[in-house]
From TrEMBL:
GO molecular function: kinase activity
Gene3D superfamilies: 3.40.1190.20
Family per similarity comment: Belongs to the carbohydrate kinase PfkB family.
InterPro entries: Carb_kinase_PfkB-like (IPR052700), PfkB_dom (IPR011611), Ribokinase-like (IPR029056)
Location of the Carbohydrate kinase PfkB domain: 5-290
Protein name: PfkB family carbohydrate kinase family protein
A Pfam family recorded for this sequence: PfkB
Organism: Listeria fleischmannii 1991
Keyword Ion transport listed: no
Keyword Ribosomal protein: no
Domain of life: Bacteria
Keyword terms, alphabetized: Kinase, Transferase
Length: 319
């Protein structure tokens, strides 16, 4: 339904971090969120929802800034795309929180994996400083650092290309696992690849250059295309070597949050000692496929149903 058609809205506490952590919790991992919320009824309601998702709130802070980041989603259908309209995030409690208001070292010490979303690098100086200090603590304390480009052009109209590239490079040198795509490699980082090669070969070449330049251990992402009227998705990973998952057809009910589901699948899979990279890749891709069928941004999937899809088990009714 379009905004012009209704005077009633349904709200959900969501966002990349919440989506990712909720999915990891449903896989059986213990998770916590580092953020700031307004010290009012809106912030307390958001914190309550976060706890309902199973996310630990030890590192959720409250401050006197009144706003919380928000956006409106108008779901698309067929050829009409889904439209996301962002509100003024810069006035939010998260963006106005000073880096020293967080206990960053304690947060890093309490967790084995640190995941940072690239949006934080470009919102303002406060979020950027917090993200980079968090990455420094992760490196210093020997924790795995995962970083997601998560570039949003509509949120970065005031920054030059050179500035954006410089911020991403600061954290790439610190990251172990990076989520991104071919556009991030070529357009954000200005890495040149042979345009006459196939898509897969260009991707492999670009990733190799990125890994050598920044010291990234693993680079992962997804590739989408349409074939015979069907939307298809596949995952790729370059850790020990470059590999792509099988291509999966996608039925789109709501695609927002599918990228977070893919990231959650990668994080979960890489922390299963007996899984090969091929298994990790297929698990993450199947998780993203399932997330497309779930309304709302939060991907409520579990290990069993993802593995069922991986094994080709298609069911229309479970009793």
């Amino acid at each position: 339904m379009l905004l012009e058609q209704t005077n009633q809205l349904t709200y959900q506490v969501t966002g990349t971090g919440v989506n990712l952590l909720t999915n990891l919790k449903s896989f059986g991992m213990e998770v916590s969120l580092l953020t700031s919320l307004p010290d009012n009824h809106v912030g307390k309601a958001a914190a309550s929802d976060i706890r309902k998702y199973g996310i630990q709130d030890d590192f959720i802070y409250f401050n006197q800034h009144h706003h919380i980041g928000s956006y409106f989603v108008e779901l698309g259908y067929g050829i009409r795309p889904t439209v996301v309209t962002y509100q003024n995030r810069l006035a939010s409690a998260f963006c106005q929180a000073n880096p020293e208001s967080y206990h960053l070292e304690a947060a890093v010490m309490a967790n084995d994996i640190i995941h940072i979303c690239g949006i934080t690098l470009l919102l303002n100086e406060k979020t950027r400083t917090t993200a980079l200090e968090l990455a420094d603590y992760a490196n210093r304390l020997g924790k795995k650092l995962y970083f997601d480009f998560n570039y949003r052009p509509s949120l970065n109209t005031e920054h030059s290309h050179e500035f954006i590239k410089a911020q991403y490079e600061k954290i790439l040198y610190k990251a172990d696992v990076v989520f991104g795509g071919i556009r991030d490699i070529k357009e954000l980082l200005d890495i040149s690849v042979n345009q006459e090669k196939s898509y897969g070969s260009q991707l492999e070449e670009g990733i190799q250059i990125l890994k050598q330049k920044y010291g990234v251990k693993t680079y992962v992402g997804t590739s989408r295309n349409d074939r015979d009227g069907k939307h298809m998705i596949s995952g790729f990973m370059d850790g020990e070597s470059f590999k792509m998952s099988q291509e999966w057809p996608v039925e789109i009910y709501d695609r927002i949050g599918a990228g977070d589901a893919y990231a959650a699948g990668i994080i979960y899979g890489l922390n299963q000692e007996t899984w090969s990279e091929e298994e990790v890749l297929e698990f993450a891709t199947c998780n993203a496929v399932l997330a497309h069928t779930i309304p709302g941004d939060v991907p409520y999937t579990n290990v069993e149903e993802v593995q069922s899809l991986m094994n080709g088990e298609r069911q229309t009714l479970i009793r």
